[in-house]
UniProtKB/TrEMBL annotation:
<keyword id="KW-0378">Hydrolase</keyword>
<keyword id="KW-0645">Protease</keyword>
<dbReference type="GO" id="GO:0004177">
    <property type="term" value="F:aminopeptidase activity"/>
</dbReference>
<dbReference type="InterPro" id="IPR050585">
    <property type="entry name" value="Xaa-Pro_dipeptidyl-ppase/CocE"/>
</dbReference>
<dbReference type="GO" id="GO:0008236">
    <property type="term" value="F:serine-type peptidase activity"/>
</dbReference>
<dbReference type="InterPro" id="IPR029058">
    <property type="entry name" value="AB_hydrolase_fold"/>
</dbReference>
<dbReference type="InterPro" id="IPR001375">
    <property type="entry name" value="Peptidase_S9_cat"/>
</dbReference>
<dbReference type="InterPro" id="IPR011042">
    <property type="entry name" value="6-blade_b-propeller_TolB-like"/>
</dbReference>
<dbReference type="Pfam" id="PF00326">
    <property type="entry name" value="Peptidase_S9"/>
</dbReference>
<keyword id="KW-0031">Aminopeptidase</keyword>
<dbReference type="GO" id="GO:0006508">
    <property type="term" value="P:proteolysis"/>
</dbReference>
<feature type="domain" description="Peptidase S9 prolyl oligopeptidase catalytic">
    <location>
        <begin position="418"/>
        <end position="621"/>
    </location>
</feature>
<protein>
    <submittedName>
        <fullName>Dipeptidyl aminopeptidase/acylaminoacyl-peptidase</fullName>
    </submittedName>
</protein>
Length: 633
């Protein structure tokens, strides 16, 4: 019979080390030289991205050993940092110099593009098609806005500009035979989930001679993919959901909606190289469909959709496709991974399982919907779960409300190592897809437009209150935690509501004006849509910002920050720390050297997770065995 112990102090075999290593971070995959290659972030090696391969015999080895680090800094968030040829040549962007390098197995890497002289030049979104290496190039010079174009790079390292003409360009796709190039373009102040345009251009002498817009420019069209030399697909949300459209160049260029579904095949283009579907040789499509959680479907040429029995149900990306087989990355109950999808929908795991705990230690995510001031609020409830312990019948569990980043992102209802780290100790987790999240259509996503710091706060507070009303959580022991934009919502909820009794902010935004002034170009105008344009809306920025209401900080707060964060600099966290100190609010501030926006190093992730547990236990008054206490100022 399970032992009886108070919530929060349950013994768990899931250490912080084990929890942080249970979900690997994959960055691309490819069929190359008869093998399967993939990118993988290695926390034990400082978070560098290595390219690994699985040979025909199933053995796994590194193709790109230390100290090489395949990581792009285009848009700061990067993506598409490597590509491979069918014969087995690797092209990659080296983090340290942002040049494109190349290597074959067994060789030493050699630089392909020349060193930059008077500019900071970066490459990303690498794609090998029709024997040509395509990339997005970003050049930082004297102009306030970096110059971006789509380029080709030949075997001698000659870089040729194919097309420019917009602030941002992404997802280049070359037609079979190389006569046309398709791509995605958008301009400030829009983000790629607001308004973009899919364009197609005719190539003359290897460059775009003229182009035409295939989408209206008033929707968020993404990911053009060629079906034949004269026909392509792209995903568009004109209907309110990201669904597929088809265009024929030898017809009238009108886009026809195909394979409609009440789900999204598409998402926020935070990083280059991400793809949500792939055309198949038989006329069908392999696609991700998102309604809260993700599912993978095979859509036949006749439009009938058959689900693929994939164990991953969140963060699904179609990484590569050879027309018959595909490589799909994602995360599920057994951790993150890459799977090989066969011609008939067969599924084979390519990457090794993390080797975590038995399934009984992981809570099942319960989809919940709560009534909020502006409509339904979607979330996933992960109750305390431990097969060896139970709580006293009269006790309600403490809960941590997780707030995802973005804010244009979403969570898919999978208990990862971090969630299980808390739930196995008797601390529930409520993971909230507040208004502004993707995965529920454009209307839900645009609920946050002009209302950041209002709708997100109202929604997380309503979700927490709804859980309490169901009798599932202790109203006196509710904490809230999040990073980046999620950290903003944490701070705003602490100063704007009385629902939460502790907060954890990881590189969170405290002053929206400072963010608008300090952040990088990709998000330089993001706040125009989330709050309003400056200087006209300056008073709103002050009113919404947590640091504009420092007298409202009352409950203990933990601040975790990367010293090299270029998106939300440490000055934000330090200003919050000063406000807390001035009011005598208990707090702790941890600055991690060598970390940027989002922690990648193993020692950082382990320390941060253990510190969060120790902080919650200290504030809510339960023991946390095996975890060092936090010194609160």
């Amino acid at each position: 019979m399970p032992a009886e112990m108070p919530y929060g102090s349950w013994p768990s075999p899931l250490t912080a080390e084990r929890a942080t290593s249970s979900s690997a971070r994959y960055e691309g995959a490819a069929f190359a030289g008869g093998e399967i290659w993939w990118g993988e972030s290695l926390p034990d090696e400082g978070g560098r991205t290595a390219v690994r391969r699985r040979g025909a015999d199933g053995a796994i080895e590194s193709l790109l050993p230390a100290p090489w680090n395949a990581r792009s800094r285009v848009h700061e968030y990067g993506g598409g940092s490597w590509a491979a040829t069918e014969e087995g040549r690797l092209f990659f962007v080296e983090k340290s110099d942002q040049r494109v390098w190349t290597v074959r197995p067994g060789e030493e890497p050699r630089a392909l593009t020349p060193p930059a002289e008077d500019e900071d030049v970066r490459f990303g979104g690498l794609r090998w098609q029709e024997g040509i290496l395509l990339a997005v190039r970003e050049r930082h010079g004297d102009e306030p806005v970096p110059l971006r174009d789509i380029v080709s790079i030949d075997a001698h390292g000659t870089v040729t500009s194919l097309v420019a003409g917009s602030t941002f360009l992404a997802q280049p796709a070359l037609s079979p035979g190389g006569r046309h190039l398709a791509w995605v373009a958008w301009d400030h102040p829009d983000m790629p989930w607001d308004r973009t345009q899919v364009r197609v251009g005719r190539l003359e002498d290897g460059v775009v001679a003229e182009w035409t817009g295939l989408s209206s420019g008033e929707t968020a069209a993404l990911q053009p993919e060629w079906v034949s030399a004269d026909e392509l697909l792209f995903t568009d949300d004109a209907s309110g959901r990201w669904n597929l459209s088809r265009v024929r160049l030898d017809a009238d260029l009108d886009a026809d909606a195909v394979f409609p579904a009440d789900a999204d095949t598409g998402g926020p283009l935070w990083v280059l190289g991400v793809r949500w579907y792939a055309p198949l040789r038989d006329g069908g499509v392999l696609a991700v469909q998102t309604q809260g959680s993700d599912r993978l479907v095979l859509i036949g040429a006749d439009g009938t959709a058959s689900p693929v029995d994939l164990p991953a149900t969140t963060r699904l990306v179609v990484e590569a496709c050879d027309g018959v087989r595909a490589l799909v990355s994602g995360a599920g109950a057994d951790g993150s991974g890459i799977w090989l999808i066969g011609a008939s929908g067969t599924v084979e795991r390519v990457t090794p399982a993390a080797g975590g705990l038995a399934a009984e230690w992981y809570p099942a995510g319960r989809p919940v919907t709560f009534a909020g001031p502006r409509g339904d609020v979607h979330a996933f409830d992960f109750p305390p779960t431990n097969p060896e312990v139970r709580a006293p019948a009269e006790e309600l569990p403490p809960y941590i409300v997780f707030v995802h980043s973005g804010p244009t992102s979403h969570v898919g209802g999978v208990a990862d190592g971090k969630i299980a780290y808390f739930t196995s100790r008797g601390i529930g987790v409520l993971d909230v897809n507040y208004g502004g999240s993707t995965g529920y259509g454009r209307a839900y996503r645009e609920r946050l437009r002009g209302q950041w710091g209002v709708v997100d706060v109202d929604d997380v507070a309503a979700a927490a209150a709804g859980l309490v009303a169901e009798g599932r959580a202790d109203a006196r022991r509710l904490a809230i935690e999040g990073g980046s934009a999620g950290g903003w919502t944490v701070l705003a909820a602490l100063v704007g509501t009385d629902v939460f009794h502790a907060g954890i902010s990881r590189y969170g935004v405290g002053d929206a004006r400072a963010l608008a002034a300090d952040t990088h170009d990709f998000e330089a105008r993001y706040l125009d849509g989330l709050i309003g344009p400056l200087p006209e809306a300056e008073s709103v920025y002050i009113e919404r910002s947590p640091l504009g209401r420092p007298d409202r900080f009352r409950v203990p707060l933990l601040l975790l920050q990367g010293a090299e964060d270029a998106v939300v600099p440490p000055t934000q966290a330090e200003a919050i720390r000063a406000a807390l100190a001035a009011r005598g609010v208990p707090h702790a501030y941890v600055l991690y050297e060598g970390e940027g926006h989002g922690f990648r190093r193993a020692d950082t992730m382990v320390h941060a997770l253990a510190t969060e547990l120790a902080f919650v236990g200290q504030v809510f008054g339960f023991a946390t065995p095996g975890v060092d206490p936090v010194a609160l100022s």
